[in-house]
Amino acid sequence: MQSVNDLLQIAERPVQGPSPSFEKPHLVLAFIIIGESGIIGRQALAARSGLTEGPVRTILRKLREDGYADANPSGCYLTKAGRHVYQSFMDRLTSFVPIEGSNLTMGAAQVALGVRGGGKAVKTGLEQRDSAITLRARGATTFVAKDGRFTIPGGSNDCEKDFPSRAWPTLRAKLRPKNGDAMIVCGAGDEITAKLGALSAALTLL
């Protein structure tokens, strides 16, 4: 996971001028959006990542300086090195899964994100919730797949039984959890913020 850590360090490196108004999850979300898009314009990237064009320009400059992205008149795209890091993320993370309002967390807009093999890093789930809240999420609940069940460490050993919800079939079908995977359901006032919260929580498990 060294390549992933190298990418995360980009967000911490100081830049000239005013401090950029973004956190690690913003950079990672923008990076993932570029990777899944193939090529994307700066304005579209800003809209999908929930950032203004100023922070997006800073993120793209950082990615270009480190050789992870480049641009042409059609938009920005990942380089060979960038695609390698992108694949490293996708080997560990699932796609975001929108969830119709559920009782599994707080917030009108909810998304789920799986972390393959992330269950071993989950303690109580509070660390993931707190990390999500720093990105203005309303709440986040972390589940760990164990013997075909959704569990909460130190809590429920069968969440589907203890917390009935219409969201469970979606989580099973879309995330396809395997033993030891972690799954984060994050809620916020809007979908982009929910994605950022879920991603912030997921980064604590990588």
Number of domains: 2
- In the CATH hierarchy, the third-tier topology of the largest domain is known as Gyrase A, domain 2
- The helix-and-strand class reads alpha+beta
Order of helices and strands: HHHHEEHEEHEEHHEH
Q: What would CATH call the homologous superfamily of the largest domain?
A: GAD-like domain
CATH class of the largest domain: Alpha Beta
Low-confidence stretches: none
Mean pLDDT: 93
Architecture overview:
- The chain is of the alpha+beta class and 206 residues long.
- 45% of the residues lie in helices and 17% in strands.
- The strands form two sheets. The chain has a five-stranded antiparallel β-sheet with strand order 3-4-7-5-6, sandwiched between helices. It has a two-stranded antiparallel sheet with strand order 1-2.
Summarize the entry for a quick read.
By secondary structure, the protein is α+β, with helices and mostly antiparallel strands.
